[in-house]
Every structure is written in C-alpha cells, then in structure tokens.
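Note to self: keep these together.
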Amino acid sequence: HALQTSFDQLTEIIHDMKNNVGIEHAAIRIAGWGQMGYDNYRPIDELPVNKEAGGAEKLAATIQAGKLAGYLIGLFDNYKNLDLDSPGYDPKYIMRDAEGALVIGFSSESGHSQEICPAWGVKLIQHNMEYYKQALDLNMIYLDTIGGLSLTECYDPEHSLTRSQCREQRLAIMKVATGANLVLGAE
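Structure:
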C-alpha cells in the first residue's frame, strides 16, 4: 500500500500545468479516487471517496480547480468488473455463460473480478452518477473496459442478453454519462 498522489497534490499539479507550463487544454482522469484506491471495490463500494487522499471535499476542490483552468477533469470508472473482495459483491450482478457459470473478469490491484452484466451496469452507473454530479461536479468521465472488448451473451435467466442487447446496454451505460452532460472517454 502506498498513496501516490493526494488530491491536494493533484490540485498543485493542475495549477502548475496551467500557470507555469502554460498548458491550455487537458483531459485529466483521476484514478484511485475510491475508498480503497486504484482498481479496488469497483463499482459498488468505491464510495466514500478515498479519505487518505483527501476525501470528497478535496476531490471536489481538485475537480473545481481543473474546471477553472479550462480542463476536462473527472473520474476513471469501471462498470464491467466487480471485484470479488468488494463488500457489496453479489453474484446477482454477474453475467453467466451458456453452462450457467459466473463469467470471470480480470485480475487487478484488488485481485480477481467477475464480469458485470451490462443490464446491471446501467443501474449501477445511474446510482453513482447522482453522487458524482451532486457532490463532485465533474465535467468528464472515463469508463474503463466498456467499449473495447467483445460483445458477449448473458445466460442468467434474470437478466439474459444477446450480443446485440449487450451492445445496447453498454451504450446505455455510456448514455448515462453523456445524459449527465459529461464528456465521455472510453476504452
């Protein structure tokens, strides 16, 4: 465990970029902002904002500093992978393959994850977006792993999806961001 950059330090970096280096345009994605840092507890239990880095008030102040500098600034977020060690983990969120097994995600800082069904991903980002806009007032969001991976079927009888429906649900996740007037970045 190591804190790499606090929100206050990021605010200083933003001021340096604007005032000393003269950078007029930038897009700043803040990763590791969740309560357990980078790639942990996503997306259900990321809140509250990481206290060691400065908490929600300092993160909001950093975002405001970026916006005042004329930059796009927001969160690095993920609605494709649910970490197995996340306190809110529940297999109801997870895609199932044709044999009914839970679909494995990838390994990260937190360890192993499983793949969230995009039908659930829409509900999860809708829930989080309310907080993001109200408490943090960001102007962009970067959704990791949402656009660059293959479309897959979900065979869970509660939220089954064809590949076409998977595409539509992933687009719906992205539309939550654009519907909140955020600039969207996506992998």
